[in-house]
Amino acid sequence: IWAIVLFFWNEYYNIAQAGYVLSKGSIKTLIERFPSSESCLISGKYWKNDDFYLGKYLAELGVMPTDTRDRLGRGRFHLYTISQLAAPGNSELLSKYWRSSIFPVRQGLDCCHPLSITFRGSGKTPIYFYHYLLYNVHIHREAGRLGNVKSDTFTPTDEIWQQFVLDELGPNVNLSSITPKKFYNLWVDKLDSPSIFNKKLRALFGGDSDD
C-alpha cells in the first residue's frame, strides 16, 4: 500500500485525505478477510476512520505501508495543497499532521516529487491547475523545463517591455506615451479569464467543458 504513513493508536496506516494505492494482492487479501458486507460492518466501531482500520487489518494480514518518498525525501502523496507545501512558514497549519507522521514533512521548493501523484484539492478546477503546473510547467527543479532553466542570453528589462509594446501597437508608437496603466491593459487584453483558461486546459487534456 502506497501513501502517507501515520502512526496512531499503535497502528501504522495511510491517511485517506492524501489518497492511497492498493495492489491487486492487497485487495484480494482484504476480500478474503472480509468476504461479506456483514463482516465489514462489524470490523470497527468508530465512524470515519476507514483509513485507520484499513491499515490495522492489512497489518494483521502481513501487508505494511510503503515509504513512497524519493531518494531526496520528497513526497509523492500529499495531504495539503501545492501552495501550502511550497511556501515555507505554514508550520502551524501542518503541526497536527507532523505529530502523527512517520516521515518529516518538507516545505519549500523541495517539498514534492516532480511527478507527485496526489494533492489536496476541492473541485475540478484545482485538479486541472495542478496537472498543468506539474506536467507542463514542471515547477519543481529536477524535471523543470519551463521557468526553471536560465536563458543563455540576457535581455535588458526595458528592451523586453518596449518590444512587447511595439509588437502590440506597431512600430510607430511613441513609447514615452505608454503609462503603467496602458501597459497593464495591453496584458489584460491578451489574457484569458480564469473560466476561459480552465476550459482551454480541459479541452487540451481531454476533460469536459463545464466550469
TrEMBL record:
GO cellular component annotations, sorted alphabetically? Answer: membrane
Major localization class = membrane
> What is the name of the protein in this document?
Uncharacterized protein
From which lineage does this chain's organism come?
Eukaryota, Metazoa, Ecdysozoa, Arthropoda, Hexapoda
Its localization reads: Membrane
InterPro entries in alphabetical order: C1GALT1/C1GALT1_chp1
Q: What are the coiled-coil residue ranges?
A: none
Tell me which UniProt keywords the record has, alphabetically: Membrane, Signal-anchor, Transmembrane, Transmembrane helix
Family that this chain belongs to: Belongs to the glycosyltransferase 31 family. Beta3-Gal-T subfamily.
**Topology within the bilayer:** Single-pass type II membrane protein
* Molecular-function GO terms, alphabetical: glycoprotein-N-acetylgalactosamine 3-beta-galactosyltransferase activity
